[in-house]
Amino acid sequence: MSLQTATSIDDLRLMAKRRVPRAFFEYCDRGSYAEETLEANRADLKALKLRQRVMVDVSNRSTATTIIGQPAALPLVLAPTGLTGMQYADGEILAARAAEKAGVPFCLSTMSICSIEDVAAGTSKPFWFQLYVMKDRGFAQSLVERAIAAKCSALVLTVDLQVQGQRHRDIKNGMTVPPRITLANLVDIATKPDWALRVLRGKRKTFGNLDGFVKGMTGVKSLGQWISGQFDTTLNWNDVAWIRSLWPGKLIIKGVLDVGDAKAAAATGADAIVVSNHGGRQLDGAPSSISALPRIVDAVGGETEILFDGGIRSGQDVLRALALGARACMVGRAFLYGLGAGGEAGVAKTIDIIAKELSVSMALTGRRTIAEIDETVIDRG
Ligand code: FNR
């Protein structure tokens, strides 16, 4: 299979699986503990049936919209994902470029391989920056200042990972901070020489935003241990005011699944919240994101924009989430599979597949514009 013959996100996943070393592929692909929430994200989306409508003039269709007031060609955002530069060398820059060309926002993670400055230098339009708050508040503040200097167009505060949900595969694969090539992984990497050559030639081999911060660590730790040591578990709603005082631009709170939390998030005056369970990577046993979406839209949809993520693998899935009240969807794995499959062209392919699926599915449900997508798109039988 090649990028030309790939027709679905599943195809890109298979290509990525062949090209990316197992430790990094599984870091992307898998979830926490028994992966019940990871599975529920997909299963509950699939269970929502779309209502076929016919004999509507759908000759003029548009997927254009705005997200937090910013124009977008599609109701889609590339989600913040850690270690993206390990799926493909310079992955963050390449994904940001693909997003820029397609007219959708790209969100850079705190835990990225390429730094804020690397991505700013490699792109020409503003991108979003995602913040994890560390115990060292001065360091968190410096990240926000760097995002301001890089002219980032939104700050995404992730609130669902002050401790890490254990991902069994990462432990078995020896994922460490900074990423380390173990003997066990060497054989696997030897079968993926293209990946290895690109990473060796790439800009970075370790977390670009955390230079100095990571160097201060004693010895190599598992990702989970490192996070427990560094991330600030005292983080609470009062801290949003502190972040607001540092960041003058658009603020998005990511990782809300509960109505009470959604109300608290909206009360901070955030421009949007992301209904998310971190792609089934944190609290295993939590409900699927899509099952939580309607009640959160009911509770705070009038006050703040509601973004959604968790399990989106197609344009049909985007349509489902929009029907239940999401303004736009973030995709994590869907774009990472494209990246692993073929770098910038692979991410462009991900966006193109989802865009075409969305446009066709809008036509087949009788909708011409994003504004025409509402609850009646879902077939309740
Ligand atoms: C993530 N996610 C994430 N979120 C975040 O706020 N900061 C981060 O650094 C990361 N890192 C990360 C790495 C990888 C490999 C994945 C798959 C996900 C969560 C991400 O932003 C998003 O919430 C989920 O990926 C959405 O689910 P899907 O689209 O992957 O099913």
UniProtKB/TrEMBL annotation:
Cofactor(s) recorded in Swiss-Prot or TrEMBL: FMN
The organism's place on the tree of life at top rank: Bacteria
The first-level EC class reads oxidoreductase
Alphabetized, the UniProt keywords read: Flavoprotein, FMN, Oxidoreductase
What Pfam families does the database record attribute to this sequence?
Answer: FMN_dh
PANTHER family per UniProt: 2-HYDROXYACID OXIDASE 1, S -2-HYDROXY-ACID OXIDASE-RELATED
Name this polypeptide is given: L-lactate dehydrogenase (Cytochrome)
